[in-house]
């Protein structure tokens, strides 16, 4: 008995340590990337200047570049990355399928379609565009969830309906792009590829507030989420109110993802990649919401730095994450195809 | 040893608009092993799921100690009543000890870590199911019989007084079937756990059950100790099968010998 007890305690402690150290390392990388984002640009400013400016001092040149351009860019990347990473992980875990993420099942497409409609047809202000993106995302999820409910909840059905809805919304977007006026198109296009360009601090407030409120909720429900992984029946018999848990987690995840999409546009594949990478680094057995969120930040900020400085032309971050993510999607599809389940 | 009363009162249950169970009244004997048998599609699994609150009955109620299980807080109920579903899902890459540990969920509060009691319950469950050596192994590496022992260990770690199992021996070869049923009997003897399960094998049911429930077309047609109720007539009525009932020389319980068309 004692020997067994020690084995279990030791194994658990080992994984706990791994979880904590990986999370700390990810947090350090995140901070490093944030600093780099603040320092790099047309002019490179030393850390001391950055800190002085952030503390409110005025340094000619540096103040404008940091306060007006780099800070909003970094903040938008930080919170959107976290939202995509954590939200994507919630979906993948809850639906027990790596394909089940906001990009693939069409939530971000719903947000994009609503935003593009506002830009091209209604010519509304950017605040309204953001609001419409959030509503578009939530409505899309509502429709997908409603249609896939049927008699009992089936994950395969949800994914397939999501892909179908996404195709329809993409058609809508293509149509809007065709009828749009030239000067609206660049605005809409920026929106579709996902970019931190032109981020404004005021625009990120709703996202920041949502992430700050939603993250504790997600962490609170992390254990229920672990139980849900065992399947509907096992989770119920362990005392989880499965419907309530699923609805709360889904609304929370959609809310932060839709707001992130409203802020930066759909940054391709971040929500898709963050969960599996976190799982690889931390291992299974614990909830990986925090690490997944941090990986999301690292992907977005790292991708943006690469997009800004690695090439002659500046690419928006969505292009870079797309290049990283697409091969993984193909790999996953091949693997799922071999196993024969969706 | 804790005793409980567990009854169904006129339950009606099914899927969508299709009623499968009709007006079932039964009372599960406390601290004993009950087995539900019946032909495919007769509603035995629906009955088990309705009793284990996986399906909400459309009529009637399921009562634990006189209280409706649907009015109890899910976590409180999960401390008393456990269920091992027929095909639970293994999270990819999880270790045996971790999976068994998930059985502790109803006993843990959200923010607190693992208590000494949690570790002890898991260790005890692993030892009882003889899977200590696999504790750190990935579940994907185990055989079907070993995996089933892991799932039962998870249900044990939950430490409920009542345990439901939905066909715990399906897909296992005969050696593992007997092994699982022996382990469940150990559990019943050691802790007085009330066990209710659905089984396909009539002869193993007759051997391991203290009490049998026979279901046909969504209704209970016979119940009682195997020696008292199993007759050729009952088997004919339940399964549409001609058979002879003889004495099981090992356990002194009824043993049915099917007849079929080519032998007489």
Structure in words:
Chain B: It comes from Rummeliibacillus stabekisii. Chain B: InterPro entries: AAA+_ATPase, ABC_transporter-like_ATP-bd, ABC_transporter-like_CS, P-loop_NTPase, Siderophore_ABC-ATPase. Chain B: Keywords: ATP-binding, Cell membrane, Ion transport, Iron, Iron transport, Membrane, Nucleotide-binding, Transport. Chain B: One of its GO terms (molecular function) is ATP hydrolysis activity. Chain B: It is a peripheral membrane protein. The complex is a heterodimer of chains A (342) and B (264). Chain A has a single domain (2-339), classed as ABC transporter involved in vitamin B12 uptake, BtuC, CATH 1.10.3470.10. With 342 residues, chain A is mostly helical. In chain A, helix 1 (2-39) packs antiparallel against helix 3 and helix 8 (201-220) packs antiparallel against helix 11 (242-264). Chain A contains 14 helices and no strands. The mean pLDDT of chain A is 86. Chain B is α/β, with parallel strands linked by helices and 264 residues long. Chain B has a single domain (6-258), classed as Rossmann fold (3-Layer(aba) Sandwich). Chain B is 32% helix and 27% strand. Chain B contains nine helices and twelve strands. Chain B has helices at residues 44-51, 74-80, 96-101, 116-128, 144-157, 174-191, 202-208, 226-229, 232-239; strands at 6-15, 18-28, 33-38, 59-64, 67-68, 81-84, 162-166, 194-198, 211-216, 219-224, 243-247, 254-258. In chain B, the strands form three sheets. In chain B, strands 6-7-8-3-9-10 form a six-stranded mixed sheet, with helices on both faces. In chain B, strands 2-1-4-5 form a four-stranded antiparallel sheet, with helices on one face. A two-stranded antiparallel ribbon of chain B has the order 11-12. In chain B, helix 4 packs antiparallel against helix 5 (144-157). The longest helix of chain B has 18 residues, at 174-191. The interface between A and B is large, with 32 and 48 residues.
